Every structure is written in structure tokens, then in C-alpha cells.
């Protein structure tokens, strides 16, 4: 759980989901010191969330190790992880043009049976697209959804 308790580590996993990236590339993309990034990358490798790929030679002839997300985080439960997921999401959209955000927020009033059905169907839809794998010629998108009890007291009669 500690490996996934950092918004920075979750962002690393997103960046390495569809293409391998080196420690240096990750540090540049996320605006952090390469030494700090190396600590986070090593934590993710040690816990199985990132895997090192074959070494390669970089532009300056230096040895580079690219890393790829293993997909393990998809199957990892994060009890109490909502705050870190929300913080990660907020960091991800910080520089996104508001016109490019397609946001949906709605209220629902459901019986326990319909709530169970909603959760199951949403999970099945997301899992179906995850299992398909990435489209080789596709663009990358991020999806974030949260379902929570609404602190909305009933109207007074």
C-alpha cells in the first residue's frame, strides 16, 4: 500500500502504462530531481508495479533503463486511498485546458439493489476496456470516476 500512497508514484504508473520511460524521462516529465525520481522508481520496481526492460543506449551514449507499468495497480485494492487518488487526479488535470475536460457529475437516488447493479455495470465496462489493451494508433486519455454517498439531507416537510 505504501508504494501507491504517493501521487507522484501513481503519475509515474500512468506515464509508463503505454510506453517505457527512463528515470531521466520521468523526472523531466514530472518536474522532479532525477535522484528523487530514482527513489520512487525503485520503490515501484521492488513492489512489482514497474518492471525494468532491457537496457538501451541513450542519446549521449549513456546506459538507460526503461521501465513499464505491469498493470498490478489495476488489481490492487486501496482502502483509504481515495485522498491520494483525488490528489493525483488534480495534479494530472492542473494544466489541462478547461474546454478539454469532459466532466460529468450527477446525483442518484438508488435502492441497495440498484446501487449494487450500478457498481457492477460500471466495473464491467471499465474492466472490458482495460482488458482490450491499448489501441496501437490511439490517443491517450485518463478516466477518473468516484461514487460516494451524497451529503444531501432530505427536504423538510
TrEMBL record:
Domain of life of the source: Bacteria
Database matches in SUPFAM superfamilies: Winged helix' DNA-binding domain
Region annotation Disordered: where it falls in the sequence: 131-157
Stored InterPro entries: ArsR-like_HTH, WH-like_DNA-bd_sf, WH_DNA-bd_sf
Protein name in UniProt: Winged helix-turn-helix transcriptional regulator
Organism: Microbacterium ureisolvens
Amino acid at each position: 500500500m505504501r508504494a501507491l500512497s504517493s501521487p507522484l508514484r501513481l503519475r509515474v504508473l500512468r506515464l509508463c502504462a503505454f510506453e517505457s520511460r527512463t528515470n531521466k524521462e520521468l523526472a523531466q516529465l514530472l518536474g522532479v530531481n532525477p535522484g528523487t525520481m530514482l527513489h520512487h522508481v525503485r520503490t515501484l520496481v521492488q513492489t512489482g508495479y514497474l518492471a525494468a526492460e532491457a537496457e538501451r543506449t541513450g542519446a549521449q551514449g549513456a546506459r538507460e533503463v526503461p521501465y513499464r507499468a505491469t498493470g498490478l495497480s489495476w488489481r490492487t485494492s486501496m482502502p483509504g486511498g481515495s485522498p491520494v487518488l483525488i490528489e493525483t487526479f488534480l495534479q494530472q488535470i492542473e494544466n489541462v485546458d478547461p474546454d478539454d475536460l469532459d466532466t460529468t457529475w450527477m446525483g442518484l437516488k438508488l435502492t441497495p439493489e440498484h446501487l449494487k447493479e450500478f457498481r457492477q455495470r460500471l466495473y464491467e465496462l471499465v474492466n472490458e476496456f482495460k482488458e482490450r489493451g491499448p489501441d496501437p494508433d490511439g490517443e491517450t486519455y485518463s478516466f477518473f470516476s468516484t461514487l460516494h454517498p451524497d451529503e444531501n439531507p432530505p427536504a423538510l416537510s
